[in-house]
Amino acid sequence: MVFGISTACFYPELTEKAAEWIAGAGIPAAEVFFNAPSELAPEFLRKLRDTFQRGGTQVISVHPFTSGLEPLLLFSEYERRFIDGVELYRRYFEAAAYLGASYVVLHGDRKESQSPQTLYFERYARLDEAAKSCGVRLLQENVERCRAGRGDFLAAMKKVLPDALFVLDLKQARRAGEDVLGLLKVLGPSVRHIHMSGCGPEGDCLPLHRGDFDCRGFLRELTNQGFSGSVIVELYRGNYGAYEELSQSVAILERGFQSLEG
After folding, report:
1. How far is CA 170 from CA 9, 155, 181, 204, 217, in A?
2. Cα–Cα distance between 29 and 19 in angstroms, integer?
3. Are 32 and 7 in contact (CB under 8 A)?
4. pLDDT tens digits for 8-24?
5. Whether this model's pTM surpasses 0.90
6. What is the Cα–Cα distance from 149 to 100, expressed in whole angstroms?
7. Distance (Å, rounded) from C-alpha 161 to C-alpha 178?
8. I need a surface site. Which of 1, 54, 90, 181 has the fewest CB within 10 A?
9. Could you give the C-alpha distances from 158 to 9, 155, 163, 172, 185, in angstroms and in order?
10. Backbone phi and psi for residue 46, each to the nearest 5 degrees, phi listed first
11. CA angle 194, 197, 200 (to 5 degrees)
């Protein structure tokens, strides 16, 4: 199991500045949230890769800033736009591979969509094949405002697409009224990546030293299910103060995991 921080935590700070802080703090792993088309340019990617390599930080995954456009680009009934959308997302797949990442995160269609589930699953499979051709995999995220925010949809997806992989976002599960451990059991070993956050009276997306979330208990459940993937702290900028709260959360994860091993 590896622990890290998403550059999304720093938004609207520049992506390269977020990378510099994560690498400078010696954080073992990172997710890169791209925020502009120019950040997919070769020179930008080279500098980003060099920054992480200097800090010994492993890039696990990347997250497209075009997530909000995925219903239109990838899940409408207009086939030509989907084909073009795949080519757009190929840039993310290639960027991920260049950075040494294994995954690209997908939000998917909006939950109000009336299109058939069969269309969604067929499109997802084709997009994942494009990702595989670049040496990476697609990860479906459980986002509250999206179709995949519901446990029943995720269960159906896993049944139809047994090869599909998932990222479990704790704050999004809370917002959707879904039981985090329940989702973990439904998806089982298909979960490869966690977006981690604490919760409590102050809110549903907190650093791990605040609130009352049983972090050690959650790590124990992950361990019991044989999880060996990545646990990435992902908070919104308004939910914490100093950047050091992010590295403090990583330290809590590392200590909690070590205590289980002991």
Report:
1. 15, 17, 10, 9, 14
2. 11
3. yes
4. 999 999 999 999 999 99
5. yes
6. 28
7. 21
8. 54
9. 29, 5, 8, 19, 12
10. -60, -45
11. 145
